[in-house]
Amino acid sequence: MKEILIATSNAHKVEEFSRMLSPLGYQVKSLLDIEEPIEIEENGTTFAENALIKARSVHACLHRAVISDDSGLAVDALDGAPGVYSARFLGKDTDYKIKNQYIIDKVKGKERGAQFVCAIGYVEENGEEHVFIGEVHGEIATEMIGEKGFGYDPIFYYPPYHTTLANVSEDQKNAISHRGKALEKLLAFLKEEEK
């Protein structure tokens, strides 16, 4: 079984990647399995840059195949904000109810288009770099709807579902998710490499 490292300490992400990569014969490890802490400074201006910064930092220390992702919400009327600052928007510890209401207020009377974007950076053992992007397009809802999901899901209205991503099942959300789409591209690449 091949081992692949994910540059994250987020157990939820580890589980998600494991579910998709283990059928391909990959054993997924994460920063939770590494004894030495690795300092990563995310100072990129795009999701792709940040994903590669994280993967590169870990690869430089461990010289192993590494994948990393960076994702967030880009709102058209806010010139793509919160973008790469999605987690730190209005302050890292600010409750998402406050962040969500702020965005609802800011787009009032404006274009409501928005997208969730995910970039997966993959640095091969030999140092070769790749980026895979997934997006899901929707719009900012006029109010927070739904109790499921997390982050910006309650304000992300997805027209084909006629509701927000916080108001649908995990399976429905995963079927169209930005991370799922980026992962599919990574999986297709890894399968091609196997040949």
Summed up, what is this model?
The chain has 195 residues and is of the alpha/beta class. 32% of the residues lie in helices and 25% in strands.
Summarize the SSE layout with pairings.
Layout: E1 2-6, H1 11-21, E2 26-30, H2 47-62, E3 66-75, H3 96-107, E4 113-123, E5 129-140, E6 156-158, E7 163-164, H4 170-176, H5 178-194
Parallel strand pairs: 1-2, 1-3
Antiparallel strand pairs: 3-4, 4-5, 5-6, 6-7
Question: Any key phrases for this structure?
Answer:
5 helices, 7-stranded mixed beta sheet, about 25% strand, alpha/beta, 7 strands, globular, about 200 residues
SSE succession: EHEHEHEEEEHH
> What multimeric state do the chains show?
single chain
N-to-C terminal Cα separation, in Å? 16 Å
Number of helices: 5
Label the overall shape. globular
- How would a crystallographer describe the biggest sheet? 7 strands, mixed
User: How many β strands by DSSP?
Assistant: 7
Structural class of the secondary elements?
alpha/beta
Percent of residues in helices comes to 25-40%
Strand numbers in spatial order across the main sheet? 2-1-3-4-5-6-7
Q: Please, what is the average pLDDT?
A: 92
Uncertain spans: none
**What is the strand content?**
15-25%
What integer value in Å does the Rg equal?
Answer: 17 Å
